Amino acid sequence: MRINPGDKRPADQFKADVFGHPLTIGGAYELEPRYVEDRRLDPRRDDDTADVYQDMKLELFYQWSKSLSFFVQSDVYYDPEVYTESGLDQYEAAIKLTQAWLLMHQILDSGFSLQLGRQRMADKRQWWWNDELDSARIYFGEDTLFAELAIAKELGSKQSDQDFIDAVSDRVVRLMGDVIWQWDPKQNLSLFFLS
Predict the structure, then answer these.
(1) Which residues, in sequence order, are bridge partners of residue 23?
(2) What does the mean pLDDT of the chain come to?
(3) For the chain, which ranges sit under pLDDT 50?
(4) Which pairing describes strands 21-36 and 14-18: parallel, antiparallel, or unpaired?
(5) Contact indicator for 48, 40 with CB cutoff of 8 Å
(6) Would you state the pLDDT for residue 2?
(7) Which terminus, N or C, of the chain has the lesser number of Cβ atoms within 10 Å?
(8) What pLDDT does residue 9 have?
(9) Contact of 121 with 150, CB cutoff 8 Å
(10) Torsion-angle region of residue 20: left (phi > 0), alpha (psi -120 to 50) or beta?
């Protein structure tokens, strides 16, 4: 787990000055047409579909100071079936809060940082976790040692079309951690746990 692993953003994004500090505004638009033929593997069934998935992400990053920043990311998606062989059209549309967090970096000039809010939890290999969770996470980092500990629990629905917490995540408290010792640029030892 790292702070926003794998996120790739353009070097030059729109910036505005808000109360004397930079607000970075970014986003992306995705359009994905799909056609699925005979999805039930029975050529006699009328189940061919075509849809045009669309997703627009909006991100706001506000750096109040060198050690305090805020981040919000939301998705607006629309997924209509533009053709169904059966004639029964459907669509999905919603607004989703993907991330919203506060980061206190290098607290009191120490190696410790604290991140609170809905944040992405992932390890760089994405073997054991890759999701956004409501959590509190503390980091420690030096030249050759990095460690983090997080506690997470879903606090409510984050989608406009869903007013409940998924049953798999409801009332589940997760404890997770990661320690990396990198003694050479190409060699490290990683330990992680999830409870």
Answers:
(1) 16, 62
(2) 84
(3) 1-6
(4) antiparallel
(5) no
(6) 43
(7) C
(8) 67
(9) yes
(10) left
H or E stretch at 92? strand 91-104
Structure token digits, residue 91: 């669509």
Q: Give residue for tokens 């408290």.
A: 173
Rounded-to-integer distance, Cα 116 and Cα 100, Å: 9
Place of tokens 């059209």: 89
* Residue whose tokens read 């986003």: 27
State the pLDDT at residue 68.
95
pLDDT per residue as tens digits for the range 105-134: 989 888 899 999 999 887 666 666 678 889
The single-letter code of the amino acid at 147 is: A
Q: Do the beta carbons of residue 13 and residue 26 sit within 8 Å? A: yes
CA separation (Å) from 184 to 3, 177, 188?
Answer: 21, 22, 7
Hey, how many other C-beta atoms are within 10 angstroms of the C-beta on 133? 22
What is the pLDDT at residue 18? Answer: 94
Backbone angles phi, psi at 108, to 5 degrees: 50, 40
What are the boundaries of each domain within the chain?
14-194
